[in-house]
Amino acid sequence: MDTFTQADGAALPTLDFDEFQKLYTSLGRRADQKLATLVASFIQSATDLLAEAREALAVGDRETLHRAAHTLKATAAMMGAPALSGLARDLEWATKERLPPTAVDELTRVEAECLRVCTALAAVQREVLTRCDSHEQGGIPQ
Amino acid sequence: MKSQPGHLLVVDDSPTIRMKLSFELEEQGHSIVTACNGREALERMQEQAFDLVLLDILMPEMNGYDVLRVMNDDPNLRAIPVIVISAFDEMTSVVKCIQMGAEDYLLKTMDPVLLEARIGASLEKKRWHDQEQAYLRQLQLERSKSEELLFNVLPKPIAERLKRGETIIADSFADITVLFADLVDFTALAAEMTPTDLVVLLNDVFCAFDYLTARHGLEKIKTSGDAYMVVGGLFNKRADHAEAIADMALDMLDVMRLFSREGGHSLDLRIGFHTGPVVGGVLGANKYTYDLWGDTVNTASRMESHSETGKIQVTEAVYERLRPRYVFELRGCIPIKHKGEMKTYFLRGKV
């Protein structure tokens, strides 16, 4: 059963606080440092995946584009970024069997949303890192 | 209940997902190794033993299906449980993986409590499985030990028939050669030696005979006190069994001369053999031994008991058969118990 309906992913929030809280709790001890590392990893790998997707689209490599969209979808969902996950899933599904002309627009939408997610996550990262420096404890910044 | 920690392999092409799962699982006490695609996962599995594999499906280079396929074909990897890690909309792929042998699935966004419970259950199952395998191996070992023992005391084809459940084993053999050899005056020698020295000496002699038996392609039936019984053409079917026994008898005398010269004992052997039909079988319900019966066996035994020290006495039947290729000396007619007068020969050597 699908949790999401195939609809306009952008209608979903950039960061889902509940999902993000779940992620933060699951990290256990030294969650702030771990979260900061995870965010850094996400920003790096999302950037890599989008570059890979863009290049694949340019050369008509449907399979790589499809796989990059799939990986970004799962990674974004895990990081509590449902809008990005939804858009990546739209692109994944669209490129499942063929390379439609709409793929260019869909990838552009994914890139734009990814920028928003990275910006939001970078802000969270700065916050938790500051807290690490001042040895504060507490949940994720809202 | 907190589950026992395990050594886990996390396979996913997303470094962020690998990292997040590692953080969570390490927090739960497990030790984690990661791989970024199927090929790398299999490499790690060749290097070290894992209790559980968390496996992504869609990956570059080698996907999860291919990993499951290779693991299924490899007896060393087959027993490692695999939990598929999937996105929320991959149910069809998950079903396919479970059909291919994956044990369970986890969503990449799964609640940590549920994650811990599922992994704990899988590890527990793996531990039971490992223990079961260890017991099975032990059982197999014990069984092969007892089989080895059976094969040691019985001819191989007979041991196999007993193993298959046959209880009464009696077969006729139309044409075989039976040899008996006896150490002359062994009782007198026994009186001069300590029991241990005696057994050691007898063991050395019989070991030498066992070696000759194997070399000539013959079959030892038994030793009884200081007597040795060996046959040719029983299970190891061969037309030249009389020749092989003749060669064996000549070699046995050589070995005895060697023992007397090197060992300082005056050891002598008396040998006799005969060719003909016998019945072979296993008697009794325990302490199995394979034995032979019939006139051929009795006559061969008489040839030995009525032989002379350092000589090989044979019947006319043997003489007729081997005459062109061996040297014989007519002994004459001697009275044989239950048989009357029999014409016998001493085998002296090869032509």
Descriptive keywords:
heterodimer, A: 142 residues, Four Helix Bundle (Hemerythrin (Met), subunit A), elongated, B: 351 residues, alpha/beta, Rossmann fold, Alpha-Beta Plaits, 8-stranded mixed beta sheet, 5-stranded parallel beta sheet, 11 helices
Percent strand of chain A: under 5%
Which architecture of the largest domain in chain B per CATH?
Answer: 2-Layer Sandwich
Structural class of chain B: alpha/beta
How does the overall form of chain B come out from the CA principal axes? Answer: elongated
- What gyration radius of chain A follows from the Cα positions, in whole Å? 16 Å
Mean pLDDT of chain A: 85
Radius of gyration of chain B: 35 Å
Helix and strand content put the structural class of chain A at mainly alpha
Report the major sheet of chain B: 8 strands, mixed
Molecular structure report:
The complex is a heterodimer of chains A (142) and B (351). By secondary structure, chain A is mainly α. Chain A has a single domain (31-133), classed as Four Helix Bundle (Hemerythrin (Met), subunit A) (Up-down Bundle). In chain A, 70% of the residues lie in helices and 0% in strands. Chain A contains 5 helices and no strands. Chain A has helices spanning 17-26, 31-59, 62-78, 82-94, 103-133. The radius of gyration of chain A is 16 Å and the shape is elongated. Residues 1-10 of chain A have low confidence and may be disordered. Chain B is an alpha/beta fold. Chain B has 2 domains: 7-146, Response regulator (Rossmann fold), CATH 3.40.50.2300; 154-350, Alpha-Beta Plaits. Chain B contains 11 helices and 13 strands. In chain B, strands 6, 7, 8, 9, 10, 11, 12 and 13 form an 8-stranded mixed β-sheet that branches. Chain B has a 5-stranded parallel β-sheet with strand order 2-1-3-4-5, with helices on both faces. The longest helix of chain B has 42 residues, at 112-153. Chain B is elongated, with a radius of gyration of 35 Å. The relative contact order of chain B is 0.08. The model of chain B has no long low-confidence stretch (mean pLDDT 89). Chain A binds chain B through residues 1-4, 19, 22-23, 25-29, 34, 37-38, 41-42, 44-45, 64, 67, 70-71, 73-75, 77-79, 89, and chain B through 13-17, 19-20, 23-24, 27, 58-60, 87-89, 91, 108-109, 111-112, 115.
